[in-house]
Design goal:
alpha/beta, binds 1,3-dihydroxyacetonephosphate, eight-stranded parallel barrel
Length: about 250
């Protein structure tokens, strides 16, 4: 069975010191062993977080990465740099990066390729805007994004890739998708992977839902067969809320 992944995306929140006090609080509880818990922090907090979580089951992720290993790319950070800092995951192609920082399906693919080559687990974000949903284009948009992001990946690489379905209209709005609607799209993403690879690969790929997930609604998403966890923004900024989200994703709940 697929291990659920609950990943907090802190976006542009928390200094290194604030990140450390969050982790101190999380470390005071025992998190369920059947859930992968990940914190995706701003670059500057990553080395401290990686050190503070050594010997725990908490994974650490970045929120972006460049596809080259090094070079004249002012302001960028590479996969080997993240690896050296103790990072294991990286969010790629978040809708905020697509909208504000000109990320395209092509750069998302290059970053996914680089992450996998360098031994990081990519969390690739896909999702439609409100206008696209209203124009009944959700599946078309998501399929195009998944196909582009995963172009050229081997079956083994695809299995290591996490896909996060994040409808743009649900992010930070307090208006989460219904669990049924999210399930429909996540099932469609799994079918897209099955068509691109085979059913076995599709069965192993983890697909998260993201967009206004909170402790109060996470159980409804986790109850769906094709939703394997969540990518969480606002509700992952407080340790007690993050702990509740991870606990709610456990089969023991
Ligand atoms: O963008 C998100 C996670 O990547 C979702 O953010 P919110 O949980 O704040 O809606």
């Amino acid at each position: 069975m697929r291990t659920p992944v609950i990943a907090g995306n802190w976006k542009m929140h928390k200094t290194a010191a604030e990140a450390l006090s969050f982790v101190d609080e999380v470390k005071r509880t025992t998190l369920p062993a059947d859930v992968e818990a990940v914190l995706c922090a701003p670059y500057l907090a990553l080395p401290a977080l990686a050190e503070a979580t050594q010997g725990t089951d908490i994974g650490i992720g970045a929120q972006n990465v460049h596809w080259e290993e090094q070079g004249a790319y002012t302001g960028e950070v590479s996969v080997p740099m993240l690896k050296a800092a103790g990072v294991q995951y990286v969010i790629i192609g978040h809708s905020e990066r697509r909208a504000y920082f000109a990320e395209t399906d092509e750069t998302v693919n290059k970053k996914t390729r680089a992450a996998l080559d360098g031994g990081l687990t990519p969390i690739v974000c896909v999702g439609e805007t409100l206008a696209e949903r209203e124009a009944d284009k959700t599946k078309e948009v998501v399929q195009t994004q998944v196909k582009a992001a995963c172009a050229g990946l081997s079956s083994a690489e695809m299995k290591r890739t996490i896909i996060a379905y994040e409808p743009v209209w649900a992010i930070g709005t307090g208006k989460a998708s219904t669990a049924a609607d999210a399930e429909e799209v996540c099932a469609f993403i799994r079918k897209t992977v099955a068509d691109l690879y085979d059913q076995q690969v599709a069965n192993e790929v983890r697909i998260q839902y993201g967009g206004s997930v909170k402790p109060e609604n996470i159980r409804s998403f986790m109850a769906e067969p094709n939703i394997d966890g969540a990518l969480v923004g606002g509700a992952a900024l407080k340790a007690d809320s993050f702990i509740q989200l991870v606990q709610a994703a456990s089969a023991g709940e």
